[in-house]
Design goal:
The complex is a heterodimer. Chain A has 13 helices and no strands. Chain A is mostly helical. The longest helix of chain A has 33 residues. By secondary structure, chain B is mostly helical. In chain B, helix 4 crosses helix 7, helix 7 packs antiparallel against helix 10 and helix 12 runs antiparallel to helix 13. The chains are: A mainly alpha, B mainly alpha. At the A-B interface, helix 2, helix 4, helix 5, helix 6 and helix 8 of A face helix 1, helix 3, helix 4, helix 5 and helix 7 of B.
Chain lengths: 305, 275
């Protein structure tokens, strides 16, 4: 790709007096440098997404436009799948969000820089440790013959006799927290660092109690960052597939697992495009979440300079 | 809890909290201890589970035995292969484009960033459905279709690394200096810009490796036995081995990220724009 810059008059400063058509031409020429990337992104990202959207609205038998796929995807077991997915994602976004905030604050407010370094390194590692490897870590501890279950049994309490199972909603939620808490610590720490000590001192000098400071100063400043981070966690949990698939072999019916089942060939005749409709629904939900996220990000950045 | 935010700079004595700091640090340690237990117990359990032998003894032989397990070499080889191809695609695509956008089209920077972030909005399980629908048969017949898609999944990370690397350079000055000394675009790219972007390129590479070695969703649905897919399949035979491999993966992730933070620290020391 030609990256040779002209010595003067770079393209981003339009030349005064140049005629309009030649300026358009220059603009097009400059944009053409993006062509390889644009073509690649279109072929391997754009086209598949278009295929999903088109497929979601296409009758597999006749090829005509239909809302039937979406209707099936929004009813019965598939509606239940969305509900379970959203419940799981809310639980594994809000609880780790709060725990992560508390831990990040505890670390941030301590005077030990060694503690901070250890926690931030560990968070980086655990936040990136997901997928099937994570599933095995928990099979060894909370699986039916896992070590922690063994300890509890030795104490006379078998969690598997009391309704607990690693391979159900609660079990999966516990596993997801393993990468959600560190992720929260990573994304909320900059916001905590943005709380200026001067604000706290000013509040102290004006006679505010700790509670008043948090309710009127700290809380409102942190709130957009906190909510934005929770939305980020929601998105991560909502699209996760590998951990749950490896743990439950598909028995916990969340939407990603149901979509995967369509690829594995468990399809009723006439429902070939329901998987695409389910995928379309997921994209819409995440897109809505991301819109809220970017609004919150903009509000949060006001205080984080 | 102590409610003064520490900036890392020693606070003047007057600003020290008046409320009993001992209670604050006690709460802090209880919180850290509980959360620490949640993170360390599975690690301990997995280690104990991996090294226990059927007779009730303990042996680290399971780790040494991993490479010779049935199917491991093929699966790991395939994953490494995909990692190399993915890195080549990612770098060939992202490095010139990122430089070009920074240099010539600063106004489309946000658009470009937006496109690179799109893979975050599309769950991999959804993307692979569309991919298998539109990919021509010749591509579907090879595992390298996965590499093309992994390059898409790597876009957000790669863009972030390269973007922060490029921001730290006085790009225009470097390019103008190179051109006025008679360097063509090839010389400018390979002998001026790339050496300056070494750490950004390296961290993009490391993140891509971690991504490819851990990716399960697309590989399993495209029915290729990559390293993570092999782990799941093999766990039916011997869960001890799969747990041992998981622990090793954690160590590898840790080492890779340690590598990035070392690179970042070195990058922090070099003066921007030096070549």
């Amino acid at each position: 790709m030609a990256v040779s810059a002209p010595e003067r008059a770079p393209v981003d400063h339009p030349i005064d007096g140049g005629s309009a058509p030649s300026r358009v031409l220059d603009g097009l020429k400059a944009l053409s440098g993006l062509a390889p990337f644009a073509v690649y992104a279109f072929l391997f990202l754009g086209l598949p997404v278009i295929a999903i959207v088109v497929g979601a609205f296409t009758d597999p038998a006749t090829g005509d436009f239909t809302l039937g796929n979406l209707q099936i995807a929004a009813s019965g077991i598939y509606l239940q799948g969305y509900v379970t997915s959203i419940e799981l994602s809310v639980v594994t976004a809000v609880i780790p969000g709060i725990i992560g905030l508390v831990v990040a604050y505890a670390v941030q407010s301590s005077r030990s820089s060694a503690l901070r370094r250890v926690v931030s390194t560990a968070s980086g590692v655990f936040a990136n440790f997901g997928g099937v490897q994570l599933a095995f870590l928990f099979i060894a501890s909370l699986g039916s013959s896992g070590l922690v279950v063994g300890w509890l049994k030795a104490l006379g309490f078998d969690p598997y006799n009391h309704g607990f199972s690693l391979y159900t909603f609660v079990g999966i939620a516990i596993v997801y927290m393993y990468f959600q808490i560190p992720l929260m610590i990573l994304v909320i720490t900059p916001a905590l660092e943005g709380l200026k000590p001067a604000w706290r001192e000013a509040a102290d000098n004006l006679g505010a109690s700790a509670w008043q400071y948090w309710r009127m100063v700290g809380g409102p400043v942190l709130m957009p960052s906190f909510l934005g981070s929770v939305l980020l966690l929601f998105g991560g949990a909502f699209s996760a597939y590998a951990t749950t698939q490896a743990l439950t072999s598909g028995s916990l019916a969340i939407t990603p697992i149901q979509i995967g089942a369509f690829l594995n060939g468990n399809v009723l005749s006439g429902q070939e495009n329901v998987g695409k409709a389910l995928g379309f629904g997921m994209i819409v939900i995440i897109a809505v979440v991301m819109v809220f996220y970017s609004v919150l990000q903009r509000r949060a950045s006001k205080w984080l300079r | 809890m102590v409610a003064v935010v520490d900036t890392g700079i020693a606070a003047p004595p007057a600003a020290r909290p008046r409320s009993a700091p001992r209670t604050g640090s006690l709460t802090r340690w209880i919180v850290l201890l509980l959360v620490g237990a949640y993170f360390l117990i599975p690690l301990y359990a997995a280690t104990a589970f991996a090294v226990e032998t059927p007779g009730g003894g303990v042996s680290a032989g399971v780790f040494a035995g991993i490479p010779s397990q049935q199917g491991f070499a093929d699966a790991f080889g395939l994953s490494l292969n995909l990692a190399v191809v993915t890195i080549v695609i990612t770098l060939a695509l992202m490095v010139p484009t990122a430089i070009y956008v920074h240099l010539r089209l600063p106004r489309v920077q946000r658009l470009f960033e937006g496109i690179t972030l799109l893979p975050i909005v599309i769950p991999p399980v959804v993307l692979i459905v569309g991919v298998l629908q539109v990919a021509p048969g010749s591509l579907k017949g090879t595992p390298y279709l996965l590499a093309f898609e992994y390059a898409v999944l790597a876009m957000p990370f790669a863009y972030r690394s390269l973007d922060s690397g490029l921001r730290a350079l006085s790009l225009k000055t470097l390019v103008e200096a190179s051109t006025s000394l008679g360097g063509g675009w090839f010389t400018t790219l390979f002998r001026v810009l790339l050496p300056n972007l070494r750490s950004a390129v390296l961290s993009a590479t490391i993140l891509t490796i971690a991504l490819v070695l851990g990716e399960y969703t697309m590989a399993s649905l495209d029915q290729y036995e990559t390293f993570p897919v092999w782990m799941v399949v093999f766990s039916q035979d011997d869960a001890h081995v799969s747990v041992a491999v998981s622990l090793l993966s954690l160590v590898v992730v840790w080492l890779l990220l340690l590598g990035i933070s070392l690179i970042d620290r070195r990058r922090g020391r070099t003066t921007p724009g030096e070549s």
